[in-house]
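Bench log, entry 3. Co-assembly request; chain sequences pasted below exactly as received.
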Amino acid sequence: MRMESTVDLTDEALIDKYREEQDMALFKILVRRHQGRVFAVAYRLLGSSEEAEEIVQDCFVKVHQNLHKYRAHSTFSSWLLRICQNLCMDALRMRHRRKDIAAISFDPQAQGQEDENFGSGKPVTQVADAGPGPSQVLDQEEQTRIIEESIQLLPENQKIVLVLHDIQGLSYQQIADQVGTSIGTVRSRLHYGRLKLKEILDPYFSPENRTQPLKSR
Amino acid sequence: MEKPSQARKEDCPQIEEELDAYLDMELDDQRAEAIEQHLAVCGDCTGRLEELSALVSKLQALPEPPLPRDFGDLVEARIKATEQAQEIAPAELAAPVQAGTAKVFQFPRPLLVAAAALALVVIGATFFGSPSTKAPIAAVPHKSVPQVAEKPALPVNVPQAVEHRQEPSPAVAEKAVAPAPAPAFKPSDTPALVAQSQGKSSPTLTSPAPLAVSQPAPELIAEYDDIVGDGIDDYGISTNEDGLYAIKL
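Structure output for the full assembly:
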């Protein structure tokens, strides 16, 4: 009965109600309302479903721990997204520290065996796994995979801005608030991020390049 | 494709940098108008804008990654676990002796006192009546070794810590001390033992270091056990991670 009325409440009203009643069911409404977006951002920034799942849980636990600090002068979703983004940054830093994932230098013109080059710090000529080359018609699923993998090759600061703007639809101002930087910096990062992403994707999507296999170019 | 004039070509790098913001409608009206005027005559920049637009469209068209599961219950479980952990942690911090440490020391503590007393006896007996002891000897506080001190002045500068250890349970100390003046005791043997335990040829008996109860020399006590025989043999010395303690055999 109560659930029918509470699901229609705004985030801020739900938080107020949760503060009063301490009913976990109310908090779970918030979780279910935003889990998709948090997962999507984490997945786009980290490129890993498993890590993104961890981030979603950590994010909401952190939200719960800091709920008393939340003030309604910023929307709950932007506050949540900021926490998610910070957790993702921590995860990326941790990943760099552990060197779990070898840096890949992307160079379509590089020579040599892909398998030998992968993880060795040498340039690789393909971002995607072995499979149909860019010369073949890319179905939607493969396009998605190539774009997702290419996004992971961007520098972190460019990747965040690009994901938040082009995929999550935040404005420059919102991103600047979120990341804690100026609009000019957001604009610059987005510009160079797109430029780099375009360079990476050109061999796959450029019409003139799609007539011959990538490795032969 | 129409080539831009020299003046317009110079504008291209600046325009190119602003194309993103123009596409995203994040430019003010004045700059947006200037770009539109440039685009009207510059095919290169128009081409760049189209490429940029195609890229952004691809990104925007990326499907939302499917949510692998519902996180409501998982998050609830994590929150409860975190809260429980936080409830336990402060309790441990507030009363470390009662909660955590007490368990560790509960069993050996009385035995530690006994061991301390035993060590004291051993030390006292070791130095008692030693003919080779010629080092200047400090006066021993009377209550530090009550049983043994009935004999001539104990040639040991017993550290203050020993007194404190002994005080809390005199009964236990007495029990351990009682067999000390056993007939099998050979005072002449003790300097060698002391020297061995200290690793010195002529031990300085006033040095408090080897006598500290907190750091008793186990081999010294073990050897003393063998020497004194009767009565005291009922006690063994053992150690664990918390330190030395005596056990009744």
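Residues 107-248 of chain B form one domain. Chain B touches chain A at residues 17, 19-21, 24, 26, 51-52, 54-56, 58-60, 62-65, 67-76, 78-79, 82 (CB under 8 Å).
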